[in-house]
């Protein structure tokens, strides 16, 4: 076997005369997390919570004391925090992970600085201006740090900038056209995160980060197609449908190639939701609702069976 998991050990134990100390040793080596793994997990968890709570504390401080603070104090405090975080990350000798977390905290403070600046001087900027400026100001840090958490912030800001631009400026854009743009942008970002590290000889992005971006793309396509089914036909729906089918086909192929159950599960689940929306649009009578219920139960059961078969096949 390429990898022994807990279930394999239990099966061998039930059909052999394995002694209890040997079983315990195998579980500790192949199944249980050791002390160092838990220590590393706790360090990362506490570090992430510390950065998050510090950023939230700064934001709540300004929200609570807003009326009592002078405008130069408001701007000066946040600028001092940003400069201190950047200087610490650049000049203090510490672990690379801590430096990247400091950059993440500074990136969050940039958003707070933009919000405070807009409130103090009443710039009248639309929401998309706020998120777009935030995105541009942290781009250099995101590129040079190549930190997955910072990339998550960057991708989120890109999506929010495009969404609010369509909502507040591009009134001629239809809802489906916006879904097409969001879906295309997230798919291109996903392809870049998967393909670019190898030719540039960079460390590959962690699997959880790739899966988060893929989940965002699948969610956008699912909502867009499910919404477009109930609306009047337009060219954007056909474009989104074709892009989705192409992306889903490549996603299934990539999941089989990399032996990842994640892609083989979220894509069929998305297809099930879209088909349910199509059936509901065809008829909303009680008989159709009953048929949709049977379809959901049957399809989900079949999908779980397929996933279990692939898991058993790849595990052995």
TrEMBL record:
Q: Does the record bear Transmembrane helix in its keywords?
A: yes
- Keyword Secreted listed? The answer is no
Cite the entry's keywords alphabetically: Membrane, Transmembrane, Transmembrane helix
Question: Which residue numbers delimit the DUF2157 domain?
Answer: 39-151
Q: Which residues cross the membrane?
A: 44-66, 72-92, 101-121, 127-144, 176-196, 208-230, 236-254, 261-280, 286-308
Q: Which InterPro entries match?
A: DUF2157
Q: Name one Pfam family in it.
A: DUF2157
According to UniProt, the name of this protein is: DUF2157 domain-containing protein
């Amino acid at each position: 076997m390429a990898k022994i998991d807990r279930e394999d050990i239990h099966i061998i134990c039930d059909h052999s005369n394995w002694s209890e100390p040997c079983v315990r040793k195998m579980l500790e080596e192949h199944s249980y997390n050791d002390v160092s793994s838990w220590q590393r997990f706790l360090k990362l968890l506490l570090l992430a919570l510390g950065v998050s709570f510090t950023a939230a504390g700064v934001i709540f401080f300004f929200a609570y004391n807003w009326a009592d603070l002078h405008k130069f104090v408001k701007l000066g405090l946040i600028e001092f925090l940003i400069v201190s975080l950047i200087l610490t990350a650049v000049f203090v000798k510490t672990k690379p992970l801590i430096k990247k977390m400091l950059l993440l905290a500074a990136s969050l403070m940039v958003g707070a600085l933009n919000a405070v600046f807009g409130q103090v001087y009443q710039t009248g900027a639309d929401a998309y201006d706020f998120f777009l400026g935030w995105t541009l100001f942290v781009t250099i840090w995101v590129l040079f740090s190549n930190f997955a958490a910072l990339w998550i912030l960057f991708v989120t800001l890109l999506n929010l900038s495009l969404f609010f631009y369509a909502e507040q400026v591009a009134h001629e854009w239809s809802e489906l056209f916006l879904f097409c743009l969001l879906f295309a942008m997230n798919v291109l970002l996903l392809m870049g995160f998967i393909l670019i590290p190898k030719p540039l000889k960079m460390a590959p992005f962690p699997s959880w980060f790739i899966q988060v971006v893929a989940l965002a793309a699948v969610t956008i396509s699912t909502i867009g197609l499910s919404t477009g089914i109930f609306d009047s036909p337009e060219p954007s729906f056909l474009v989104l449908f074709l892009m989705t089918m192409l992306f889903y086909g490549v996603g299934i192929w990539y999941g089989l190639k990399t032996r990842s159950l994640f892609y083989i599960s979220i894509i069929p689940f998305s297809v099930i939701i879209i088909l349910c929306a199509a059936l509901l649009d065809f008829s909303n009578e009680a008989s159709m609702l009953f048929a949709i219920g049977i379809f959901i139960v049957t399809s989900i059961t079949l999908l779980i069976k397929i996933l279990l078969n692939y898991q058993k096949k790849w595990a052995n």
